[in-house]
User: Fold these one by one.
Assistant:
Number 1:
Amino acid sequence: MRHNAGGENSSTGRESNFSKLCFGGGVKGSACANRKKLRTISETRSLFRCKLTTMRGAAMKRSGILVLTPQSCGGGAQRVVLLLATHLAMDYETHLGIVLSEAPSVEFPDRVFVHRLSARRVRGAAWSLLLLVWRLRPTVVLSGMAHLNFLVLLLRVFFPPRTRVLVRQNGTVSAALAADSHPHLRRALYRLLYPHASRILCQSEAMAEDLARELRVDRSRLRVLPNPIEIDAVRAAEPLSIAWREAGPHLLAIGRLAPEKGFDLLLTALVTLRGRFPHMEVAIAGMGGEETRLRALAEELNLQDRVHFLGAVPEPARLFSSPDLFVLSSRHEGMPNALLEAAAAGLPLVALPACGGVVDLLRGQEGCWMAKEISAVALADALSAALSRLSSGERFAHAWIERFRASHSARACSEMIAEVLVGAHS
């Protein structure tokens, strides 16, 4: 037992000091002196309460967060999750779980602890994910993709007690159901599992309203958090040249080569515009299962000399210096990061109404043209209107992009997690 200089044990010493603080060494004295001593007791208790609150706050700051993503490389959804993990690590002990097997290609800051589960498929990671959660015992698990969300919510009952699960919805539910080959099964999974999430993070008010309506989820569980964009990094990106063959206009589209991205609509729209803009070219950055079909379509439409398939570009922001405008040709979206990054770079924007969030964001904004419907004809009309108005190389401020600045978005996410942690500790 530790002893103090006066020969008392540490416990007795603390009691003695507390007694002296409160009573001045005794309980006798005038009524006035006793009132002063009682005030001192009250002040001391207040001091202790304040100290306890501070300690609780420090404990909350140290609470562990496990952020889960299928892959560290890939599209905008993966980049959003990685950005959130990086920024959350400034406030919390943050662990990043990468579910699928991949060659490490992304460097993470030292403050983010990376765990690779190396599964072949998301559903095959159930056991290793459970082991990771029990080993780390995080206060919060944040899952960043819909199919991974299902697995995490299925496993939730086997997590340590009081583990809070947050899921980030990366697409509009109604559109996802309409495009799914088994919509009734997916709807059943959504309705069975999503109500058990502590919070559901949506990318726009339109997405939150759609989710609440389709899944009958309590609106109080939904939070709208804007996608984080590293605006300054986008603007400072070192340009990557595109081997344009003609004088232009030059169009840029970015996304996974999949049916929902609508690149077939873009190619069909180019045919309509070819007579008016004979030197038009488009560069498409991305990879996916539709590449062979899209290349064949370009040849069929006699556009093979006007379309550049760039493949995967690790830093898409490097492409923004030379195009005349950015095209969003998607049939449905959540809130596309490629569009937001193009806006940060000042590019003019032409978009199909891929979701309510995109329509609300771009409607009436200078330098933005929204097609009337999701079709190749409507896209051609919007492109024609934009190109007739624009000068070569023209750029726009797009001041509305500031709400997506990564520091603002991450702060909102951190505050939402703090709200969840208060519930976990209460």
Number 2:
Amino acid sequence: MAELPTDTASGQPGLFYCSFRQQGAIVRKGAVMKNAVLTEADLVEKGIALFNEGRYFEAQEAWEVPWLTATVAGEKQFLQGLVMVAGAFHHYLRRECEGAALLVKKGLPLVRSSISTHRDLCLSELAADLEDVLDEFESCSLRVPIDALPKIKRMAVGS
């Protein structure tokens, strides 16, 4: 079996986009997805799944390429908002309240501005939930359980 590439920062194999920019492959610890080419839409969906699992850093990584390569302004803002919110939650997990609050403040308007263009997602609900956790992040109460952090939900079919 081929040896997995190593993360240059940590020296460890893991989930990272080592060759995405060159070949479109993602390497995951323990498995190589050969000839896998994920579209930007695939990466957005993967990021949403990771976010909802509480894997905020990995969600940011999944959204990074579509965000940086987006050519439509509204899509770029939407993805930037998601990246910031995921970053905020990652900071919160590390008990870094100031960073968490700052990133929610920056990401919230970008999420709000995407409500009308991403009708398949419950972004109004996400924005309201972000406002609620912002107060907690600013007070650094650490009272919000990790599993109670907001999720990205889909609209019900027929809504």
Number 3:
Amino acid sequence: MAQKDNRQLVELLSTWFKRRDEPNIIAVKYAEFTGTQSASVASGGNVAITDLSISHAMAKSTNKLLVLGQAGSVANSDGYGNVGIAIAAGGTLLTVGTSVGSRIAVSAGGLNAAPTNYITPSRTIVIQYSPSSTSSITYTLNAINIRNATSTVYINRTETAIDSAVYARAASTLTLIELEG
């Protein structure tokens, strides 16, 4: 699904923030992905999630950006749900953990203990970002392979695609909220 410009949401959030003496909301942009995606990803590598890409130019270089990313379900071809997520700005991952030794840096995600085709955890992150620029930047929600080998990463579905009630289909979203700085 294409990026949306939610004027009603801007008005609602602006009203909510003004009641709490918070900064004004300048813009809200939203994208969603309700389909499924699979991609072969190297260990520690990442792939942008289909349709979760928003280009945005800040109104002022001093403004802040609140970025909310949510992957409805993630899985991989090893029977684990070992897929992390992170927001990327212009292709660079933002707010990821410090990678120590062979550990893989993500914003959200982790090791699931036992392999099963049913593991499809959701992942959610919220970050504040200050691009200090009014140039247009493309933001994406990326999936990261948290395995020590190349794996197929699945978005919004389980590893197994059998038509059964136990195999969920999910939706993923990306929201940008520009706040007056």
Number 4:
Amino acid sequence: MTIREFVVLPLLAVLILASARAADKPKLTLDEFFNYVGFTDVKLAPDGQSVVIATDRADWDQNIFRDDLWVYRDDGHGAGSLTQLTNSGHDSNPQWSPDGRWIAFLSERGGAKGGRSCEEASTNGRVAQLYVISRSGGEAIPVTQGDEKVHAFAWSTDSTTLYFATRAPWTQTQKETYEKEWKDVCQYRAGERGDQVFSVSVQQAIARQAAAGSEPPDPANCKGRVRSRRSTSCSPSAICPRASLIAGKRRMAPASREC
């Protein structure tokens, strides 16, 4: 037997065996193909015993693609459980708190919409806001509200504060003035107002949720205002501006006072 035969014959045997096994498997149907579930995010808990999973799948009854959060818990003995954490169909970007008690995420479940002032594009007209939920499940707690999309967020190291970035908010008067002048026309680069970073206490968000008729803070609401030194925008006293986007470069701007 030559060296070529010695190499080729086993390779042919492997290919024939693989083809035979593939023929035994059921073929993927069209329904199975369109009903796939994609994993858009996977985050390990600080204790290493749980994983939060963001999924994306088609919901034919509601004619949407659902974005939901799931939690997989390992019991430490080779077994585990998978539990659906949220079911609004609009939840994504989960992040564990450093102490592992909470999961913060972005959601378009609320009624906030971008309006007509050349706001950021959205597939369903809604804008993403920040929520928190206990690692054991339950009701999600809104942390922010408003017509501006939350672009990014992060936990403080002690798990007591959430920092989030959003465009410099317009007041209702500014929006009405713009829409009156420009109607349905988008002024060139009008939407490029730059981002500011705000902070909000998680415990205050929980307290607001517990209080009847309470609402999460809206950076565009100027009651009890706190202004940054480099911005004319304002926010409730529960939220302090931490940074602003100036001339296309991110520069830190200290708040006028702490929250």
